[in-house]
Every structure is written in structure tokens, then in C-alpha cells.
Amino acid sequence: MAKPKKAKTNRESRQHPNQLNLKIVTSETCKVCKQPCARGMAYVDKMSRPGAIGCGVPCILTAPRS
Fold this sequence. Notes:
Number of strands: 2
Distance between the termini: 50 Å
Mean pLDDT: 84
Radius of gyration: 19 Å
Number of helices: 2
Low-confidence stretches: none
Oligomer: single chain
Largest sheet: 2 strands, antiparallel
């Protein structure tokens, strides 16, 4: 007996049409940024402490141009 074919789901259709895709950047990227933002500078301060563990921060400057 053959299995019925599953319909392919489009992963991009799950996102809201106005949702931005921002790159996750590390504190090293934030340190050399030409336009430092408050979120990035707070992340740099947090990561400069001994023993800090971080996963990055979304960079608003990497938003797609419209």
C-alpha cells in the first residue's frame, strides 16, 4: 500500500509579511560598528565581564532595504 504524498510546507509562509530578518552579530562586530546602537553597546558591556556567555544580538543595521 502506498503512502499518501504530504504537501510541502513553505517555511517562509510562517513569518508575518512585515517581519524583518536580522542577522545575529557578536560583541566583536558591535565593537567595530560605525553606527553603534544602544542594544549593541549594552551587549558589548555585558560580554566584557569575566565569565559572560552570550549568543549574539540582532543587528538592526542588517535589515533588508525596502
